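User: Hi! I'm working on a homework problem where we have to compare a predicted structure to a textbook description. Could you give me the structure for the chain below?
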Amino acid sequence: MRVLQRYFGSEIARAVLFVMLALLVLFSFFDLMGELTEISKGGYRLQHAFLYVLLRLPGYIYEFMPIAVLIGTIYVLAQFASNSEFTIMRAASMSTVMAGSILAKIGMVFVALTFLFGEVISPYSTKLAEKVKISTMGATIAQEFRSGLWTKDLVRANGLDGEVTGSRILNVKEVLPDRSLRGLKVYEFDADFHLAREVTAARAEYIGKNVWRLFDVIETAFPKTLASKDMTAINSQKFVSRDVVSEITPDILSVIFVDPDRMSAYDLAAYTRHLADNKQDSDRYNIAFWKKITYPFATLVMMALALPFAYLHARSGGVSLKIFSGIMIGLVFYLFNSLFSHVGLLNTWPAPLTALAPSLLFSMIAFGAIRYVERH
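Assistant: Happy to help. Predicted structure tokens:
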């Protein structure tokens, strides 16, 4: 059993690595072609484009891991079948359950790798890639929005703790690469949703612990019982600087511009809680969170889908035909995974069901195929 485990593991690992390298080279080439149109904008040069594409590779490894596992495993099992190795293994008392157990143990290694790339490496490298591109191009993150960036948080009695006393809407004209803000407007409302205060600042810097330091501040206070023509009751003051405690941090602001599929489950959970606390729609990020939790286990489903190919002899098609079938199955799974996310969002399906549906569907197909080839 241990000998077979090592043999299966080494052969599948080499095949998956080869397939992954092929996929990375292909999609890196497409990305680089797309980045060539950005060269010469600001300080963005060819070396920056190469670095940007390189930093995006961990995200592709995470996305393509199940597909690479499927194709690599099909290739190895098809080779075993064509060389009659799998037949000899079965004659030596290796049952389908035992073969499935071997593949499941190998699959758990790929599950761990997928988690590693999805939770640690890919989110960090993606943020670094965007930072490289923005800083070299001299661009600002929010410049593409006509009215700037809008977000919302709660006003509490003791900063981040205590009773909720109102809500706050923030409008930022530009988010700079150093995570500072330019052209900030803050609208604070009391518990009855009356406008209590308006704050404008030329710029703002994050000094840590949920504290923003605003500069060149104009603060206007509106009394709750303001008569329609009594403008003298409005109090306006100017400050050189002013500190504001807010749930909004640079990390939360950066989330708005990052594809949810490239974020870690931890960041998605934090941002989903923030949206829920502020009565904002969090369905998209909730689905992305559950996909992040369940997606790595899709490698086990791909292993199960590959197992029936070991029972197909050479007369059922050559290795190349089986690999082509694996590529098609992988593409269909990838498309289904994306499709269910959009359909679930449109139909407000439960996020766990939306995330699990493609894997459950392909699991049933895999077990049905295993039973079929075992009987025939």
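For your comparison, note the following. Residues 2-138+282-375 form one domain. The chain has a mean pLDDT of 83. Good luck with the assignment!
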